[in-house]
Fold each of these.
Amino acid sequence: MSKDIYDETESNQARFLGEQWRIIKKITAEKAMKPDILIIEREQQFLAAKDFRSKGWVTRNLWGPLNLMYEKFILSKLDGIAQIPRIIGLEDYNCLLISRINGDEIKKSRHLLSENFFDQLLKIADDLHSRGVLHLDLGHKSNIMVDHHGNPAIIDFNCSLYLPPNTIFRPLIRLLSMVDQYSILRLKIKFRPQDSNPSEKRRVERFLRLRKLWIFDRLISKLTNSIQKANRPQ
Ligand SMILES: Nc1ncnc2c1ncn2[C@@H]1O[C@H](COP(=O)(O)OP(=O)(O)O)[C@@H](O)[C@H]1O
Ligand SMILES: [Mg+2]
């Protein structure tokens, strides 16, 4: 099974935006369709680069650029929400620079979670929904970050959906926003079981049963497998 490689020891330099930056962390994605993530620093400014440049041809030239353009489009709808990365710019058509969230993934920061962490997370999700953005991948623990004060931030919008928040789409947004809310509730049960009540647990179980019928889960995994095959060296 493929897994990401975390490397915090190597201290390399790299050029971004015409300047020399220090790479302070590199997460090399072994999955063919995922970008490498570089956390870079220059004069006390920290950025994150989502970088498809080392990937196979199909990912580097088709999947990666489409993926980044889409994420950039979604992030542009969320401009001004503090707990979301800001767009800095494109280094290349297959390398996107965004602001760094100063913290770590929730699975590594369980001990830091503030008491109202999940209420804050639901509030951020509400802010996204009011702009018409549905994250739809909050169940994935690596998309929830925790800062050093134990507060949440949300990253990774490439599975998100944007619907204009007008009278026509608002009912649909309200319906689909339940996917994000249940995903957050599920994380709350996992990470703060002492704060979760039986009714929340029952609601999440019902949601998980419904999700098994979600055809897109299976379609996405088929698509991933085909692109991985196409990228494999002959
Ligand atoms: N803006 C950011 N600030 C800090 N770390 C980040 C940022 N973006 C990504 N990361 C790190 O990289 C990992 C993968 O990034 P993500 O955007 O979820 O990409 P993927 O599409 O590979 O899931 C995250 O779990 C997080 O550890
Ligand atoms: Mg992710």
Amino acid sequence: MRAAVFENYGSPDVLVIRNVAKPTPKHNQILIRVHASAVNSADWRLRKPDPWGVRLFLGLRRPRIKILGGVFSGTVEAVGSSVTRFRAGDRIFGSTGLKFGAYADFLCLPENATVVKFSDRISFGNAAALSFGYLTVCHYLRKAQVSRGQHLMVYGASGSVGTAAVQMAKYLGAKVTAVTSAANTELMRSLGADRTLDYAGTDFKNDLTQYDVVFDAVGKTPWRDHLHRVKSRGALILVASGALRSLYLPCLQFMFRPRLIAGVITEKVTDLELVRDLAESKQIQPVIDKIFTLEEIAAAHRYVELGHKRGNVILQISDTE
Ligand SMILES: NC(=O)c1ccc[n+]([C@@H]2O[C@H](COP(=O)([O-])OP(=O)(O)OC[C@H]3O[C@@H](n4cnc5c(N)ncnc54)[C@H](OP(=O)(O)O)[C@@H]3O)[C@@H](O)[C@H]2O)c1
């Protein structure tokens, strides 16, 4: 099968297309024919790696995992002898978790992975964009107990996590102020944002609104700068706080009034089922910026690493729609 392989850390050019052995499912695994994956912000960080500490998890000198790709959509090709949740032919999408491997024609995952079936009301391309940002957002909105009528500010609302945050907060009945560059104002309106602010403009700097929840989706501004915008009984969500800060922030909580919420997310099948149902009923619609083929993987990484994609970048692996 074809796969985008990386033997060494480095620039996007370390990703090369190779023919590698097709995996065989164990008794509790499903073999998936991958139709689409997505290139997310996490992918280029692992490839570089950035931060350096990624090496402690992925391999000090060389990556132990040779095929990246953390999300996918596809069809079940075969199932192991003890699998009961899926059968051959099912359309599925989800996250590979720490196994990665979705930049390839085939992938094996345990049947209890964060994976759900979906109908042909969602295309394979769109389905590949329903895991990364939305699973992240479901985790954090639950932690912050976001509810109807609350006012939420999404800072950095135009990326994969941000566009999902705007849509899921609207679904929960919150009022949403989206902070993006001026170029993304229209996109925010189309996603249902009630107010938009330009992060480079004076409206944002002079904004005195007290929010129930501030959801910083990109971590491009010092987290302390958000504190004065959050009500004292509110919550400050720091999606991109990094591993180190996620460890020490909870220890500093006693010094700050708004609740600080950071750390690595827990992926839940029930969250993915909700996202699937909302996408099938067109209550949410993933934002797709660009589509690359598997052979264009280096170009896709180069583009995503610029840090200005709108929503999601899809990697089309087979021709099926
Ligand atoms: N904690 C976790 O478990 C977890 C899970 C998933 C993701 N993350 C982290 O979440 C972060 C966001 O991920 P993502 O995939 O959504 O990123 P992304 O899609 O690459 O973000 C790109 C967006 O960021 C915006 N942006 C760039 N500079 C900005 C600034 N100074 N102010 C406001 N917006 C700015 C860009 O808008 P403009 O072009 O208009 O500037 C662009 O639309 C990443 O750091 C990722 O590592 C953490």
